[in-house]
What we know:
InterPro entries: ArsA/GET3_ATPase-like (IPR025723), ATPase_ArsA/GET3 (IPR016300), P-loop_NTPase (IPR027417)
Shape: elongated
Strand content: 15-25%
CATH topology: Rossmann fold
CATH class: Alpha Beta
Protein name: Arsenite efflux ATP-binding protein ArsA
Keywords: ATP-binding, Nucleotide-binding
Domain ArsA/GET3 Anion-transporting ATPase-like: 21-176
Distance between the termini: 30 Å
GO molecular function: ATP binding; ATP hydrolysis activity
Amino acid sequence: MRVSERPADQSGAGWPGRLHVVTGKGGTGKTSVAAALALGLAAGGRRTLLVEVEGRQGIAQLFDTEPLPYAERHLTAAPGGGEVRALAVDAETALLEYLDMFYKLGGAGRALRKLGAIDFATTIAPGLRDVLLTGKVKEATTRTDGQRPAYDAVVLDAPPTGRIGRFLNVTAETARLAKVGPIKTQSEGVAALLRSTVTRVHVVTLLEEMPVQETVDSIAELTALGFPVGRVIVNAVRAPLLAGRAVSQAELRRGLLAAGLPAEKEVVARLHDEAREQVVRRELEDSLRAELGELGRPLTELPLLPDGVDRAGLETLAAQLVRAD
């Protein structure tokens, strides 16, 4: 059965598919969301793999652990006996692995590294780097352990939305350039997986104008390229400080006096300005939320974590994600 014909896997409630690609504009918290998703999908005795491909070691920093090697390693336990493993994919090491696997050039490949030939190869053929990165992700996603997949879910902390279309589509472009051989076969296999029911591409955003616009543009691009878009995840949502209409200075003054607090003119004026800003902010967020809703994708909101993204915060986000409809 070809990958494109496989039925969708159910790796968690509301999260069909086995490969979850998480992207988003820089600064939206996509690495934290990817980590929380891997943790949530591992709950209840499942095993997930969390992968990064940008060389930033963001996962290691998030979990306060040693830099991740080019190997699948235990990262953390999940509630209910599950496990999250992690992998940092390095293009150079992936190329050595590729040369050894298909051309039996393990020793020669290591010599090429010393000569700088690997950097040369990925420089003159930039697409090759992304083929190697996505190829490793494909291998982990499709690998079996007996009769079942090695991982219930693979979560990829992918490049940001500005590069995600090119990153995912490079395998298809390489497949057209390479007429025969292992590179063509691998490229076609990766391209098929990324467009199959096994894969979902989730976009992380904030309720701010630039991230929302980039989300809209990215989903349009991904859809045009044929990639299955999953959820729009709105991160760091603030609870509204005010409900309903803006209050007047007179109302603020009466409220302060009733509470036994200072109600000087300057204090009331400052509070009134802040309240007005909150109302404007809420109206903008409501408008952006409606714009995201028009995309027709499932929408999940995650709360702003006042204490930052620590382990407790990740578990809060994980629980919120897996409860998504």
